[in-house]
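Sorry to interrupt, but I need a hand with the structure work. Please put the record directly below this note.
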Amino acid sequence: MLINATRYTEPGGEIELKVFAGSQWDNSEAVFVVKDNGRGIAADLMSSIFGMFIQGGDKRNISGAGLGVGLALARSIAELHRGRLKGSSAGVGKGSEFTMYIPLAPFTTTAPDVKATQTVQAGKLNILVVDDNEDAASLLASFLESVGHQSVTASNGNDALALFDRHHPDLVLLDIGMPGMNGYELARRIRQHPYGKATKLVAVTGWGKDEDRYRSKEAGIDVHLVKPVENEEILALVDTAGLAANR
């Protein structure tokens, strides 16, 4: 949240951080508020600002703008703690405010729920993330690890094939528009691998024409997602891949 505020606040601007304990609906919560007087967010973007690869403001005029993953990751972390993240802005040029609510754990001497812990471990997947934008791949991998999975990243097709051969991932999230071996060719090569027939392949790409989707299907890609992608879509696909892997 703080990194996001610094990216969209001009030098000399102000960023305010408040942390306090509050109460809502009879549940005690820790509240974190990050408020800035920076570029703000257009009203038509507020409904999608927590989606993957969404960037607020005008990207053309923002030096060092992020990849649009930070807020989606922050919200997912909040939800993992049974909390929530809300955002507001009066509009472009009028700053932004983001508030995270995290339930405070009650004092207890009860032993941890071992069965629940074992269930999470049993559902852990090996996931390969392939994108020539290394920062985007690393952030998506971090998001997947934050929800309990193992992930590795590759920035090109050859490295991806080597990692696939070594790790036998249950799920591959791959970009299409990569230099050299593009995502279509990578998918075909994976399908030819002895372990590749049962792997779930998901394209996460900026290519969204009907022809692109057809070529994905032809290459053996199971699902074609067009950026920006909501993190709920990613998690739903991960859950589906987990069910298939545990059969």
